[in-house]
Specification:
The first copy, chain A, is of the alpha/beta class. Chain A is about 40% helix and about 15% strand. Chain A is elongated. Chain A binds a DNA duplex through helix 2 and helix 4.
Chain lengths: ~350, ~350
Amino acid sequence: MKPVITIHDIAKKAKVSLATVSLVLNRKGRISEKTQERVRKAVREMNYSPNYSGRILRRKCSQQIALLYYPRASAIFNNPFYSKIIEGLLERLSQNKYNIVLGNCDLSEESFTIPDYLQNGSVDALILTGDLPEKAALHFSDLRIPILLLDSFSKHLAADSLTSDGFQGVMDSIDHLVSLGHRHIAYVTHELDLYNVQTRINGFKAAIQKNSLPLLGCPLIRMPVGKNVEWLAQEVLKATRSKAPITAFVAVNDTIAFWVSHFLQKEAIQLPRFLSFIGFDDDEEYSQRDIPMTTISVPKREIGIRAAEIILTRISNSDLPLQKVVIPVSLVRRNSTVVVK
Amino acid sequence: MKPVITIHDIAKKAKVSLATVSLVLNRKGRISEKTQERVRKAVREMNYSPNYSGRILRRKCSQQIALLYYPRASAIFNNPFYSKIIEGLLERLSQNKYNIVLGNCDLSEESFTIPDYLQNGSVDALILTGDLPEKAALHFSDLRIPILLLDSFSKHLAADSLTSDGFQGVMDSIDHLVSLGHRHIAYVTHELDLYNVQTRINGFKAAIQKNSLPLLGCPLIRMPVGKNVEWLAQEVLKATRSKAPITAFVAVNDTIAFWVSHFLQKEAIQLPRFLSFIGFDDDEEYSQRDIPMTTISVPKREIGIRAAEIILTRISNSDLPLQKVVIPVSLVRRNSTVVVK
DNA sequence: TTGTATGCGTTATCAT
DNA sequence: ATGATAACGCATACAA
């Protein structure tokens, strides 16, 4: 094993003091050009890189940010939606020489305890993401580092928040369907106490009012715990045969929209002729399948970049008031929505 | 901001010295039960967690491992194959209180330089993964931390290696096809200088020999740089119309197998009746689409766990000889392979 | 069994 | 413009 090079070695080699080396490397103080060059030369030749632990011990900042995905960190690797977000996030963070730390932290566990790495100074901030229930977020209310709720929000947790505009997205969806002549539209969602779900449902209700749609023809179909998407599809099917039969549905996300449509097709329902539908997120994975789906496009990469900027700002300035940033979304029309029959 | 609790505060509160607190927390030395309990109580009450930087400065080990995915770290989030591997990896690492560090490090860049966080002691080891070309791996030959090549191998880099058994996998694929009566089988792959590709091609050649298949009827179809999968599909199509027409193809992975089959179906080729095919990896994403695919199943989660164990062992014992671990794979028969017509 | 003292590698303050 | 020195928080060799 090669010996570890320290700032002492550089100082000796460049025939200056520790302080000078440090000043050169951190671009502080006015060191003469000649000395600077001598130091830099030594650094280059010995391939010196300032020791991480020594540095963060002094600076009190680790240049690392923890990323927690609900429910388990590792699940984030399988999610096309977050994948794009994290691409932007990581790129922007690394511009400021920040890295992401991934630890296993099962937020769904009953006996949840904060892991050490979130409170021993090894990370400067925490990004919480995934479909994060309010209850899970509250675990972190005593943390001493700033928190960013990425794609969620909590009234009770002092944290910045960055979400896409679910309210507007659903409003736009309904408006689009109404413009195609639909008046009976269901909203289809999973049954979870999530900020995003609530916001989108609010958008649904507001859109019903705005367009004066009949309440009876616009059911809210929620999936109870223990049921699966097949059950949901059955409920949608029932709604097409009710007294005020629906002619379209809007789903809380592309995944649910796709799988409901999938099961309906298995039941020999003609889509979209018999039933128009709209998703949310614009995940390639689902929205580009056999029936290219009309959906709400979310600027994922930009969200990641914005998230990085919010958390970096917060780290360098903890006094700023908490932010709640909402990113605009836009409807992408494809083939799953047609003029009402 | 609440004050930061240090070992001094605990010592004072428990009325012992710093050393005693440290000894209790690290389970060293024989401290009396009574003292231990006093210390633990103070730790609990003050919610103390030993400062990360102080600790790693002394211990000279950061309990962190860098994960680099080729070509860019962020791309790993979109890969169903690695997603499962990392699930196992992260779980096993965190049992030993190790976290994963993700930095942006574009290995495909011309002017590649090793980022600081790989050589300043902020990580104890490096895991290189993705379809890593030999050339890219060599960038790291001067690193002072141990390296694990996950799903790749290099003769020229001193690193442990963990791969799945591509040779055996392709042998099994061909054997299976032969048992169904196929004698003209193409091997379809991308044109990259990858260890996995080479190994699998070797398996293909060995299987041809072993089964005495006609060389002319068993073309190796490689995708040159600049061409896409559609081009590849066209080449496969040509091979079905050659003098020794193929009746099956084996692809280097599920992705390519799926997309080639997809394009062939668009050309109105009846699959698998007209052409059997086999993938590699058993990614749900692709292998469970419209034609459930016969493929080589790779124990991804176990590979992740094994990777964690190899790297943890290496960290704690750098003298061990380098390991090259090969994980067995198994053929899963589904519907894409049928008896030759 | 417990306490004292030192050093890990860095940055920053204060002299010179 | 540069150097000496004191922290930062912890672990450990050694002393008591």
